[in-house]
Write a structure and sequence with these properties.
Blueprint: H1 25-29, E1 56-67, E2 69-75, E3 87-96, E4 103-112, H2 113-116, E5 122-128, E6 140-142, E7 150-151, E8 174-182, E9 185-190, E10 193-199, E11 212-222, E12 248-256, E13 263-265, E14 270-273, E15 280-284, E16 294-298
Length: 307
């Protein structure tokens, strides 16, 4: 791509005609595509916001630990999406708080036709200051759709195409991602390039202003339930037992354990597949080889065991 004048940074320009115009603004800005489902009436205080277990399906891991960032590799594929309002992603989330007080910064590899206007994977960032209950400038949202994200790199930016992608029985590609809290900002590095940051001032003292309390690496799809269970791929649509060159993985997973940049092995206490007949996860967090802590993840959705 042609670079802009010196001192400028890139921003994504979408084909507006390719985006689903039937969605309201709240749904468009929502991480999950259906904002209304995440805003039950009458909620108050620190309550848990349940996520609809039929809409969201996970291959999930999380470590509860004081942290100042995370780092790892996501094996990059081009998943199949059955419907345009469904997405498939692999990501790292840095989290503090719960319920409406939950604050997160998230990054990874995502395909989402109704958000990006195409059927290919993208680098994404997302944040929330209020447990996903409200999107908007300095509150939460995707990429550069709302104020909050500060772009730094002149070459890599949120919504950039994730390319190249891995081939079955062929060459494998990874997206190396790192969040680091540094001098009051949550910086993102992608494949060795510092991309930009979320100012810690977006968050409060009980949230992400000074530290995180949970690091999570996981795969997720949203099931639009158009004709029963979706056939949307998680990962590359293959199962963990299929292994190298056949199934998606996340590897060399770590979290930042001090403010000086020191890293520690990721050792999650919570690991599960929310719908194990549809999507799976196989953990190897005790691995001491070159991949470090890692896991295989994915699946094809609807099948004879997952009707």
């Amino acid at each position: 791509a042609e670079l802009g004048p010196k001192g400028t940074v890139p921003t994504a320009r979408r084909n507006v005609d390719a985006i689903n115009s039937s969605r309201n603004l709240g749904d468009y800005l929502s991480k999950h595509g259906r904002a209304a489902l995440l805003r039950p009436d009458g909620l108050g205080g620190d309550v848990a916001l349940p996520e609809d277990e039929t809409l969201h399906k996970y291959a999930y891991s999380a470590q509860f630990v004081t942290a100042y960032g995370c780092e790892g590799n996501i094996n990059a594929w081009d998943p199949y999406l059955e419907w345009s309002d469904e997405f498939s992603l692999g990501q790292c989330a840095v989290v503090r708080g719960s319920g409406v007080n939950k604050q997160t910064i998230e990054t990874g590899h995502q395909e989402f036709r109704d958000l990006y206007g195409d059927w290919v994977p993208h680098l994404f960032v997302f944040y929330t200051t209020n447990g996903y209950t409200e999107q908007g400038d300095n509150k939460g949202g995707y990429n550069q759709d709302v104020d909050g994200w500060v772009q730094y790199s002149s070459t890599i930016y949120p919504e950039a195409l994730s390319s190249p992608v891995s081939a079955f029985d062929g060459t494998q590609y990874i997206m190396n991602l790192k969040w680091q809290l540094w001098e009051g900002n949550w910086w993102l590095r992608c494949n060795g390039t510092w991309v930009g940051y979320y100012p810690a001032s977006l968050f409060n003292d009980s949230g992400l202003r000074n530290e995180a309390e949970k690091i999570a690496w996981y795969g997720e799809i949203v099931d639009g339930e158009h004709e029963g269970t979706t056939r949307t791929d998680m990962g590359n649509g293959r199962w963990p037992y299929e292994g190298w060159q056949h199934c998606a993985y996340m590897s060399n997973l770590a979290y930042q354990s001090d403010t000086r940049g020191g890293m520690s092995r990721y050792n999650p206490s919570s690991v599960y597949a929310s719908h194990p007949k549809c999507y799976g996860i196989e953990e190897h967090f005790d691995n001491t080889g070159s991949w470090g802590p890692y896991f295989w993840w994915g699946g094809s959705g609807k099948n004879s065991d997952c009707p």
